[in-house]
Write a structure and sequence with these properties.
Layout: H1 2-7, H2 15-22, H3 28-40, H4 44-64, E1 74-76, E2 83-85, H5 88-95, H6 100-103, H7 119-123, H8 129-139
Antiparallel strand pairs: 1-2
Amino acid sequence: MSLAFLLHRRWQPYHKWREAMFARLPGAGELAGPLQAAATAGDWRDRETALAAAIELLAGVQRRRGLPTPAEAVTPFWDRPYRTVSDAVPGLLRAAISDPALAGLAVAAGSVEQWADHDELLAKPANSSPLTCAYRAWLDPAAAH
């Protein structure tokens, strides 16, 4: 769901409203099936198949937006019997960044939404400066001292 909001350039709302707003996104009906199947799957293989279908649908959205996208977004996970998102998905996107300031940003930390879900933190910019310090310390511990 988070990727669908991102690809459609819509802010992902507070979790209380996320599902209702997701339903309004273009293609949400098509994506809802695999997501529902993944959430209710009886075993990991069915869950993996549903998630792989959702990933390929999102890759189609990415492709239609003109963003670099591999022919197949889901690939085998090394020699194991699992599938994963191809490294080419983020790799092609990163390679297409032409702004030097953006290209120089570290990708290891991710976004705050990946590790915080508190409304007061995410919705109020004034609360974000401690996060900036935390990110900087995490990415470059030497600079924190």
